[in-house]
Every structure is written in C-alpha cells, then in structure tokens.
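Handout, section B. The chain below has 159 residues.
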Amino acid sequence: MVQFPGEKLQEYINRPEHFERELMTLQGNQTGQSLCLDKSWDAIHYILTGAKLGSGERPLALIIYSEQFFDEEQDLGMGPASYLTPDQVKEISNILDKLDNSYIKQKYSAVEMTKIGVYPGFWDKDPSLFDYVSDNFNELKNFYRNAATKNHAIASYMG
C-alpha cells in the first residue's frame, strides 16, 4: 500500500505504466509513505466489514482493495493495483479515527475467521495473533490519517 499526492492520481489512471514505473520510488520514499500489512490484511477487512475481502459495505470494504483499478490488466504480482481518491481516503480516515482497540477486540473472532477462510486461515491456532492484527490495524489507521492530512490518494496491491 502506498500513498502519493492526489494530483498524480489522474496521471496514473491515464498512464498506469507511470504508476508501475514509480512504484519502487513510492515504496522507498519517506517514512510513512508505504505500508505492508503482511498477512493481516484479510483479518483487518473482516474486522471492518464482518466478511472476507471482496465483500462488505462501503466505504470500509474499500480500505484494503478498492477494486478501482489503474488498469485491470496490470499485474503487480497478484493482479492490478487499486486506488482510492483523496476524498475517499479522508472519508475512511475519519471512520477509522473513531475505532479503537476495544472495537478491534469486539470484532475479532479467531474461530469465525478461521471457519470462513479469512487468509491465511489459522487464526484460532495462536492467541497472540490478535496483537499482530491489532498492531497492523493501528498502523493502517495512522497511514490513512497521514494520507488524509496531506490530501494524498492511496494505491493498494498484492505482490
């Protein structure tokens, strides 16, 4: 997941190869400009929506992978990059700012996540995974807050 100035969004939509070319620079740019959720992405999506990636109510269903693509044919490892506009980033950031660790604890269900196949599928095997997900959730909140403050767009990809 990377953030970038909102002014670049239309360029990347019109010329997806520019995004691909600049991706490594965006990843290695200033601290806080990129975020890797490791294997917690589907668990975070579940906490926010009660469902696996690809379903759930908007706008929170868009937080990990928006399905707004620069180019549907693009392949960055496991498919194309999706993006959120600066306005979508601000909307999501405002919602995330209202959610705290008690919300995460309330929504986190290792048994249910394992049962419905939330990636990677072993949430009920290790109680310490809650802390792993909670830490990544808080990193995601900070990432969105930082992007919203700067009027940045966000691109997500799985690679």
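Note. Helices lie at 9-14, 16-28, 41-49, 86-96, 101-107, 110-116, 129-149. Compare this with the example in section A.
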